[in-house]
Automatic annotation (TrEMBL):
It comes from Litorivita pollutaquae. This is IS1595 family transposase. Residues 149-306 form the ISXO2-like transposase domain. InterPro entries: Tnp_ISXO2-like. NCBIfam families: transpos_IS1595.
Length: 358
């Protein structure tokens, strides 16, 4: 129940009598309440935009109290089931959406993200909870980037990222029992620096290709490719480029074959000075700029061995450099409204990845 005006004025007057320690405690409490209020506002905005019941699709509803986290609950007039703005969403089972927003801002903000352990200590949570939340964000970003559409002048190019085996125990097991445990397929990346090993020249199978596609309208897509073959690039580009688009790329055979098969107008640019702009506005400088941005998320990220999150990390680096995390992220990452736009409606029992169960 909100305070009456007279009681609220007495509360404000009592703040003058607080000592420094009490002021610090009051600031912490107000900061926590503000975070909860912001999260609830995001959830309420999502509920106000979509009035349909997540169970039967009915549009008639009535207010039905509030949840334990103070979110407005509704009851459907047709099926008599209750729901809230989080029902059927990716954060439906998360009890502290306010702290999830803190994790989001840490991942997508302008400063370098904190490590999982440091952020867990700051929030007073277990490190595995913060890790699962980051994996949940990767899952949502992957779902949002899969439906990008392009038109007009389309730029495409690939970049390469060294393979990461973060969390792998193969080196530790081999060093502990070299007679029975085989040698890992490659040295650790740090061994090239600490032990003076010679780095392999050029591209190798340890360099993972990531396809980057963007247009002048702001659409953006990063896609992890299984290999560097021309047929793979052509197959990945085919559903992305409409028939009336203009394709700008390097001289890769995959792009040439796609343009010839679809009858596209194709401008080929080079990497040497004087060849980076084909004619007028036809270039791939926007893609090159995305590749040149520092991938600060990569060094603080928790990657699984399958490298599913590499494309999402590039998307986060491309979007977070343009907009502040407090107002959302760029095209293809997370839509404006951190909790509102990032929550695709789904069936209540749908769990695409067991890592999202908290």
């Amino acid at each position: 129940m909100p305070l009456l005006h007279y009681d609220f004025r007495r509360f404000l007057d009592a703040l003058d009598d607080l000592n420094p320690a009490q002021i610090e405690d009051a600031q912490t409490k107000i900061r926590d309440l503000r975070r909860k209020t912001e999260a609830i506002s995001e959830i309420e905005a999502r509920t106000n935009q979509g009035h349909k019941c997540p169970f039967c699709g009915g549009e008639r509803r009535q207010k039905w109290g509030r949840t334990r986290t103070k979110v407005q609950r509704y009851r459907c007039t047709d099926c008599q089931k209750t729901y809230s703005g989080r029902t059927g969403s990716a954060i439906g089972r998360i009890h502290r959406p306010d702290l999830l927003m803190v994790v989001l801002r840490d991942m997508l903000g302008s400063s370098t993200p904190q490590s999982v352990r440091k952020l867990a200590r700051q929030l007073g949570f277990n490190k595995y909870t913060v890790w699962r939340w980051r994996m949940l964000v990767f899952l949502i970003i992957g779902n949002s980037t899969s439906s990008a559409s392009f038109s007009g002048i389309i730029e495409a190019d690939e970049t390469y990222q060294r393979e990461s085996r973060k969390g792998s125990r193969e080196w530790v097991r081999h060093f502990a029992d070299p007679l029975n445990i085989p040698n890992p397929p490659r040295p650790r990346w740090e061994d090239f620096t600490t032990q003076g090993l010679k780095m392999m020249r050029g591209l190798s199978r340890w360099q993972l290709p990531i396809l980057t596609v963007t247009d002048r309208g702001g659409s953006l897509l990063f896609q992890r490719l299984p290999n560097r073959k021309s047929a793979t690039v052509e197959r990945a580009m085919r559903p992305l480029v409409p028939g009336d688009a203009v394709l700008c790329s390097d001289g890769g055979n995959g792009y040439k074959n796609l343009a010839a098969a679809r009858g596209l107008e194709h401008f080929v640019v080079g990497s040497k000075p004087g060849t980076r702009v084909a004619s007028g506005c036809y270039h791939i400088q926007n893609v090159n700029s995305l590749h040149a941005r520092p991938l600060r998320n990569l060094h603080q990220a928790v990657l699984r061995s399958g490298h599913q999150e590499l494309g999402q990390l590039y998307s986060m680096a491309g979007g977070a450099a343009d907009k502040d995390a407090a107002s959302g992220c760029d095209q293809g990452v997370i839509k404006p409204g951190l909790l509102n736009g990032m929550l695709p409606a789904s069936k209540r029992g749908d769990r695409a990845d067991p890592i999202c169960r908290l």
